[in-house]
Every structure is written in structure tokens, then in C-alpha cells.
Design goal:
With about 80 residues, the chain is an all-alpha fold. Helix content is about 50%, strand content about 0%. It has a domain of about 40 residues. The longest helix has 20 residues.
Length: about 80
């Protein structure tokens, strides 16, 4: 079993939860043999990088206005805007 010794130097983060999430947390703890606190810690360690990858503000290429319009469904561009 993995124990994170940095827990002694940590902060407590109160997080409100739904009943369903609390039940899922308890079931995951029972299934894995980890404590509920360890399940939360490991979930955060695994999930934060994935969340940053999906929703983070990484570098983005600016599109031209015409490229933006071409991506809109049902919008027909006038012939003079077509390349």
C-alpha cells in the first residue's frame, strides 16, 4: 500500500459533495482497500493533469474570421470570401 508522507505537511481542503459522490467514494475505498482520504488524494493526483489538458489555457492559435465562419454549421459564405 502507498502512503504519502507529505500528508503531515498538508492543508485540509473542505469540499462539499453530493450523496452520489460520497457513495462512489466509499465504494471505491472499499474496492481498492484505500482510505477515503487516500482515494481523494489519488483521484486528485490522477485527475488534475487530465483536467488541465482538457480545460487548461494552453497556447492556442488564433483563427482568421473566415476560418471561424467556415466552422459554423449552416452558414454559407459569399463567393468572394471563398479561396
Amino acid at each position: 500500500m502507498y502512503y504519502d508522507f507529505s500528508v503531515k505537511r498538508s492543508k485540509t481542503i473542505p469540499v462539499p459533495s453530493s450523496v452520489e459522490l460520497a457513495e462512489d467514494l466509499a465504494a471505491t475505498a472499499a474496492e481498492t482497500g484505500l482510505s477515503q482520504a487516500d482515494v481523494i488524494r489519488q483521484s486528485l493526483k490522477l485527475g488534475i493533469p487530465a483536467l488541465k489538458g482538457r480545460l487548461g489555457l494552453g497556447p492556442r492559435r488564433r483563427r482568421s474570421l473566415i476560418e471561424h465562419f467556415k466552422g459554423l454549421k449552416g452558414l454559407e459564405l459569399p463567393p468572394y470570401l471563398e479561396p
